[in-house]
Structure formats: C-alpha cells, structure tokens
Design goal:
This protein is of the alpha+beta class and 75 residues long. It contains 2 helices and 4 strands; from the N terminus they run βαβαββ.
C-alpha cells in the first residue's frame, strides 16, 4: 500500500498515543496515509480504538513475526 509517512513505534508501549503526538497540529498534508510499525501486542486494539475515537480511518493492520503494521488515513 502506498503511504505518505512512516512512524516507527517499535519497542514503545501505547504506540497509538505516540503516533498521535507525532502527527498532531501543524501537519500540512490534507489527509496523509500513515504506515505505523509497532511491536506492542496491545497495539491492535489500541489502533482500532484510536481510529474510532479520532475519526481517522484504519485502512489495514497485519502481523508478521511479532511486528505489527498499520495503515491509517488521517481525517
């Protein structure tokens, strides 16, 4: 999948919060697609909740060798 920006949240707890801080106010692109890499098993539920609470769209999520990959379209 094509994406505009990648955020590496591997090794962090609560990568959804980290992603929100990285993509907060001041971004200039209208609706970027973010690729986020994480290792926290709880990130699957976290990103589902994050998308629902913020109005962002979780395009896909996948796991490969205990790493998680998420694609999120910002609102």
């Amino acid at each position: 999948m094509n994406f505009d920006k990648e955020l590496d949240a591997r090794g962090l707890n609560c990568p959804a919060a980290h992603s929100a801080r990285q993509e907060g106010p001041g971004r200039t692109d209208a609706r970027p697609i973010l690729r986020i890499l994480a290792t926290d098993p709880g990130s699957v539920k976290d990103f589902q909740a994050f998308a629902k609470q913020t109005g962002n769209e979780l395009l896909s999520s996948a796991e490969n060798n205990k790493e998680f990959e998420f694609f999120i379209k910002r609102k």
